Amino acid sequence: MTATQTAKKSNAKKKQKTAIVPTREENFPEWYQSVIKAADLAENSPTRGCMVIKPYGYGIWENFQAELDKQIKQHGVKNAYFPLLIPLKFLEKEAEHIDGFAKECAVVTHHRLEEDKENGGLKPAGKLAEPMIIRPTSETIIGESFAGWINSYRDLPLKINQWANVMRWEMRTRLFLRTAEFLWQEGHNAFATAEEAETDARAMLDMYTEFAENIMAIPVIKGEKTPEERFPGAVATYTIEAILQDGKALQSATSHNLGQTFSRSANIKFQSSEGNEEFAWTTSWGMSSRMIGGLIMTHADDDGMIVPPKVAPYHIYIIPIIHNDADKTQIIEYATKLKNRLDAQNIRSELDLSDRRIPDKMWGCIKQGVPVRVEIGKREVEDATLTHTRRDIGRNSKTTESVDAFCQKISNILDDIQKSLYQKAYKRTEDMIFDVNNLSEVKDFFVCGNIGQVRFATELLNSDEFSKLMQEFAISPRCMPFEDDGQKVIVGKAY
Fold it and tell me: From CA 31, how far away is CA 51, in angstroms rounded?
């Protein structure tokens, strides 16, 4: 597509009543926050820059974690856990690394509290002999362990992953997308040769691509970061970038070929098969809870969340439609039998027996983005049927049929929802990448307020003019796509 084309939506559409105010078109950042609140996913914490992930939001994370963990283990990686606190001296060993994270580090300087008799309350006491850093990432402390675990080429490859929290003292935060504390997994692998490390770094990126597209239904662009955008201390940084509904990019996962940078600073040595002492070649790779933010901005609409079935806390939301007490017992028994049957088929379901009003239950289900809503009332019980609606299509998909027919086809329905969400997002992503020929066209694109990313020759990055454009429009190089053999770069605004 050309730079003169735009992905802006027409304002001529007739406004419809929606569950989320404001709509995406009216104010995308506020819409995003409203979706999170309406779906009851998370809320801001009293702890500066942090969040409380509520049960429904954490349910998405649990399924995310379970699915990704399976794929990680298929690569021969084993899970472990390393300390939250990292001695300052460990980070000082790798100057480039600490320089990249220095402004984001939270530092622990004392080990206890005591009464503040002069001012009241409590005050820190017991100053530590050496400050401790709350991990922003774990290369240095894991490298310390690797140095003790690796002695011979027979100890390689060593592949370790940890599921953990990290802290980066962000100045401007946004739920899921950028918080001071967040959840993630970080993998750290060590090899005997440079070739093995490079192959591994690319393989883990392929794993992330498959996960993003097949599990989260988020299309991504695979590529390499420019030298200026590399992870501190890395030889090469590979990334997958998602293009969200507002045209901004989201760095969704990264995989780093660290060469021998960290093995030299951590003294990770091994005796080769020829009897020589050599430094190991290492990689690191990670994906975090910010992907839930990416999921929202990829799939949600003006009625709220839409959750792909593979990570949905429940696939089916069952709502008993009870208008009088005389029918209550019979309807609940019928609905319970349905839930038990779905559970036996490994279909995650939720039966809402709360006292909330029926319209509130329905809107709550819509706002949380449950893939399929089932309604059961007196008529359904009498006819041995149920009524179901797909969240991705809406009321136009409302269907009444027998319980047997529904149970036989529900797996196919969920598969179809998963595929249709990906296909819709893929088309939008393709429509939001614009090819340009020079930096003048880049400027014209952003001056006009177009939504999306631009793609142009990588060689154009090396100019003062591009540096000025980055500052003027708050844009940055996202990646050099593999499909373009590094000859082109995608540039735009990002989260």
Answer: 18
User: How far is the C-alpha of 216 from the C-alpha of 199, rounded, in Å?
Assistant: 25
Number of neighbouring beta carbons within 10 Å of residue 210: 12
Q: For 317-359, write each residue's pLDDT tens digit.
A: 999 999 999 999 999 999 999 999 999 999 999 999 999 999 9
32 touches 21 (CB < 8 A)? no
Q: Are the CB atoms for 144 and 173 separated by under 8 Å?
A: no
- For residues 60 and 201, what is the distance between their CA atoms, to the nearest angstrom? 27
The class level of CATH for 28-299 reads alpha beta
Q: What is the pLDDT of residues 284-313, one digit of tens each?
A: 999 999 999 999 999 999 999 999 999 999
Full-model pTM: 0.94
**Cα distance between residue 303 and residue 371, in whole Å:** 13
- Give the angle subtended at the CA of 436 by the CAs of 434 and 440, to the nearest 5°: 125
Q: Note whether 191 and 197 are within 8 A (CB).
A: yes
Q: Decide whether 28-299 matches 314-429 in CATH topology.
A: no
Q: Which amino acid is at 398?
A: K
**Domain chopping of the chain, boundaries:** 28-299, 314-429, 433-492
**Domain 314-429: assigned CATH number:** 3.40.50.800
- The CB density around residue 362, as the number of other CB atoms within 10 Å, is 18
